[in-house]
Amino acid sequence: ADPLEPPGEVAPPWTWQDTPDGLTAYGVLASVIAVGAIPGTPLHTASEGDLFYFVALAVCTQYIGAHRGLTTTQRQQLSVKDGFLAPVAASVSLSLCYVIIKYFPNVNITSFLNAYFWLLGSFAVS
To answer: What's the maximum distance between 2 C-alpha atoms anywhere in the chain?
Structure first.
């Protein structure tokens, strides 16, 4: 229960509350991802292409996260248990990455890392 709400009132369910600039940021993020997936673009041919791609992804995700944090009226709170489990989950995932790379030497590391960070990013955004 939210301590700022009067007793006896039920909080309304979550609804999509985004402004046009937030939707534009999602569009820019989707465009950056789409351009990064097309072979033969300057991102794949220029020596600084990878740097631009990852900086653009980082800036977009940071902007979206900050925008959502500032415009959301309902706040999510982590419990102490969740706070303690976060480093454990990170350690387990990194240990599994090490085991896969160590015992499966024929795994394409680039594809593995792309899949790992895609999965990590999917959990972070959701």
So the answer is: 61
Report the pLDDT averaged over residues 22-28. 81
Query: How many residues are listed for the chain in this entry?
Result: 126
Count helices and strands in the chain by DSSP H and E runs: 5, 0
- Nearest-angstrom CA–CA distance, 36 and 43: 7
Contact 26, 71 (CB under 8 A): no
Cβ neighbour number for residue 43 with a 10 Å cutoff: 20
User: What is the reported pLDDT for 126?
Assistant: 62
CB neighbours of 116 closer than 8 A, spacing ≥ 6? 93, 97
Please state the rounded mean pLDDT for residues 37-65. Answer: 79
User: Cβ atoms within 10 A of the Cβ of 119, count?
Assistant: 11
